[in-house]
Amino acid sequence: MAARLGGALVYAGAGLLLLVVLAVATAGPVYAVLGCLVAAGLTGIVVLGAERAAVVTMILAFATAPMYRGLEGLSGGVGTPTDFFLVMSVMLLLSTSPAW
Questions:
Q1: In terms of Cα–Cα distance, which of 92, 95, 97, 94 is closest to 44?
Q2: 54 with 96: CB under 8 angstroms?
Q3: How confident is the model at residue 35 (pLDDT cuts 50, 70, 90)?
Q4: Which residues, at least 6 apart from 18, have a Cβ–Cβ distance to it below 8 Å?
Q5: 69 vs 13, which has greater pLDDT?
């Protein structure tokens, strides 16, 4: 019974994610690409698990590090992809640590 409920929740979550991405995509092509990236990231977390997804985001942070200087001026000094990926990896790793 629990497996059926878990499967139903997965399908409901996937359907909700699809509806959200479709709603965001109507705002323009930039939002459509961002919505697809968010959907791919959430799918990666579900498929890989939080710990492995954190390792992947840490690798992406190091891969985007050489761009840091060029993108800092474009973002107004707010943040770069490196910052984003580092924060995401720390958040994912904190969610996998045992309660203190």
A1: 92
A2: yes
A3: confident
A4: 39
A5: 13
Range 56-60, long-range pairs (CB < 8 A, 24+ positions): 57/85, 57/86, 57/88, 57/89, 57/92, 58/85, 58/86, 58/89, 60/85
Q: What is the DSSP letter of 6?
A: H
Amino acid residing at 14 = A
Residue type, 28: G
**4 token code pair:** 């059926």
Distance CA(91)–CA(89), nearest Å, equals 5
CA–CA dist 24, 45 (Å, integer): 21
Please tell me the distance from the alpha carbon of residue 23 to that of residue 62, in angstroms, as a whole number: 32
Tokens of 39: 């959907």
Answer yes or no: pTM beyond 0.85: no
